[in-house]
Structure formats: C-alpha cells, structure tokens
Design brief:
3 domains; two-stranded antiparallel ribbon; Ribonucleotide Reductase Protein R1, domain 1; mainly alpha; Fumarase C, Chain B, domain 1; 61% helix; single chain; two-stranded parallel sheet; Fumarase C, Chain A, domain 2
Length: 466
Amino acid sequence: MTKNTKKPWQGRFSEETDKFVESFTSSIDFDKRLYSYDIQGTVAHSMMLKSIGILSDSELKEILSALVKVEKKIEKDQIVWEDSLEDIHMHIEHELIELIGDTAKKIHTGRSRNDQVATDIRLYVRDEIIEVFDNIVLLQKTLIKLADKYSNSIIPGFTHLQIAQPITFGFIMMAWFFMLERDKSRFIDSYKRVNISPLGSGALSGSSHELDRNYVAKLLEFDSVTDNALDSVSDRDFIIEFISNSSLLMSHLSRFSEEIIIWCSTMYNFVELEDKVCTGSSIMPQKKNPDVLELIRGKTGSVYGQLMNILTIMKAQPFAYNRDNQEDKPALFTSVDTVLMCLNAMNVCLENLNLNEEITEISSKKGYSTATDFADYLVKRNVPFRDAHEIVGKAVGYAISKKVGLEELTLKEYQDISSKIEEDIFDYLNVKGSVDSKKTIGGTSREEVKRQIKVAKNIIKEYEKN
C-alpha cells in the first residue's frame, strides 16, 4: 500500500515533484540515524507548547504516546522510508499524523525544519563527543598498562629516523598518552559550544508565538539558548570543530600506527603483534602484515577529506538555512564512524603488542646514542658545550674509522683526544646510565617515567570519578 505522502509545503505548488528531484533532494538514507534525537526534540517542543496553552493535556498525552510508538516502529525496522518524505523529520511527522490525525499537525507550531535539524545535530554531536572521549580513555588505559609493563625497557629514540638517544618504551607510551590527553581536552572544550539550544529560532527570525525557549533547553539538558535566530539556523561551526578535532585525533592515531609498523618490520623487529590482529599474504606464505594499523593510517585521509568537505560546504553560504547544509551530515557521520572504529582498532592492536626487549636494548647501543651524554660529561668538567660537542664529534669520527662503539675505545685513546677525559667516562657511555641521567621533569629516566605514569593514572581516576 502506497503512503499518502502529501508534502507539508505543497500548498503553494500546482505540480507534483519530479521523481528524480525527489530522489536527488532526499536525505532520508543518511539522516534517519537522527530519529531518536528528532523525537527527543519533538517531545520537548510539545511539552513547551502545552505549557503556553497551544496544546491541551490530552493532546500532549496523545502526542507523547504516539511518539513512543513511532520510535519503537523505527527500532524494529518497520518504517518504509520514502524519498517523497525527504528526511527524518517529515517521516516522523507523517507517522504521527497517521496515528493521531490533526493533533499531530499542531506540533510544528513555532518550529521550522531549520531549527529542528540544528537541534537534532547538536543533540547527536553532544552524545558523540562523550562517546569519542570515553573511547580515548579506554585507549589511554591500555597505554598506561604498557608503560607500567615496559617502564624499564630500553629502546632507541629517533630523530630524522636516525638513532638519537636511548629512552624507555614506557616513556614512548606516556608520550602517546599525553597526546591523547590534548585530544580529549579539545573535544570537551567544544562541548560547551555544542550544548546550546537553537530550538525556537524558527526558519531564521524567531517566532510570533510566546515560545519558552529556556524551558525547552532545560528539558533537553542544554546549558543555554542561542542568542540570535539567524545565526542559530546558519551555524555549523560545531560540526566543523568536531571534524577538526577528529582530524587531529586521527593524525595522532596515524603517527602511532606508523611507529608500530616500522617497529614490526623485520629490519627492526622491536615489537611483535599477536596473530589475531594481523593478516597474511595471498602469495607469500611467510608474511605477517600489520594491516589494521595500515588501515588506520589510510582512514585518516577520509577524516581529513571530510574536514575539507564541510569547510567547502560552508565557505560561501549566505545566512539562514540553505539546502547545501543537507550535506553536513554525511561529512559528520563519516567522521564519527571512522574515528570510533579507529580508536577501537588501535586499542585492540596495543592490547596484543609485545616488546622484544633484548633486541631493543641492543639496538639502543647503536648509532653512538650516548654521544650527548659524553658531551654532558665534559661540560661537568668545565669544558664549554660547543668545545665538548667538537671533542665528542672527533671521538665519534675516530670510533667510526675503527668500526667500533664509543664504549670500545680505550682510556688512552680517549685521553689522546682530550686530557679532560678520565676513567669514569665509561659510566656515561652505558645506555642504562644514559636513560637514568635524564631526571628532569618530562625526561626518560625510569624514575621520571614512573612519575608520569602516576600522573596519568590520577588523570584517569579523576575522569572516572566524574
């Protein structure tokens, strides 16, 4: 049986809408995921209409009861989605009219689809900010576990992808933790700009009805109401901000992925991922590939693309609502889905990561990684740093010519280079000694990394308390 899909705006029109135009302008394929938020907004708006005398008690009860039925029908996938009804708002209104007739036609009083969709999206983004936040916390907990487990494990630190100085694996995990902490703070900071109600702004100029916008905002747990109706229905800044924050988060996940992919390679063999998070090759039987991490790296481009997408959608729009804004939702939904999926994927990979501690410690001795400690040793003997830098450079050059490490040179060879060098130099060329000498706040010493882990644990405790 075909639905009676009379459009709420067709009074002015003398012809039926072309079927292709109906299909082209329809957004129901993607905006139906907003159904619960549209129903929440309709409940609040209806309660407000009753409070100002537009709906009676019995009409409100009838509307609320019908909304429950519509929501259950959608949840059971019993709705037939029609392009002719364009979007989720018109589908819900149509279902209500089918159930309760003329009473349902009253609920659009003082409300436009413009402020209705702006409200729905804010409610949706508000929830997704919390969802992303919670998933970042889960990932941070995994990082803390790894930092605890490998707080004493030495690994080469790199600059320019060249071995630079020895550090600990726990130190790296804490670096990742605090990067994610910044991501969390950005999402939470944006929450206050999302959590403002535009409902009651109408199409662009407000309403001639005495709408109680503050009452609606309170029912929907918004902090306040928007101050200008024209801005309210035009504003998509909060979507841009969400996708921008998501892009930075994805950048971090991609960088983590890149590090692990390099560490997994047979050239390094620093870490091993369990079989359950890897895939193989269709032709090379020996291969074990970190495809999950490669996909995180690849999907980062999708979120970056959506940021450019939404910025381009908004860049030249005149004020008030324009149909271009229909395209904000695919950009937003794609970003949300990708970020949540990749946070989960990264967490699964890290839960199944093992450090090859013996290999990383041996590798940390390569590349003359304690050369800076050697220079610091000379500075403590009143050699100006630039002179110390030159002396160590000569020592490294000499060691390279002999194809040996700094620790393999003799005391006599050192003293031929500088009379300031004494027998205790060999204490400074040890990678463990190098690591533990970095005791400044934020350093890589094992003692300092334990402090960072304690700070991280306290941060998580505070979030869980709240």
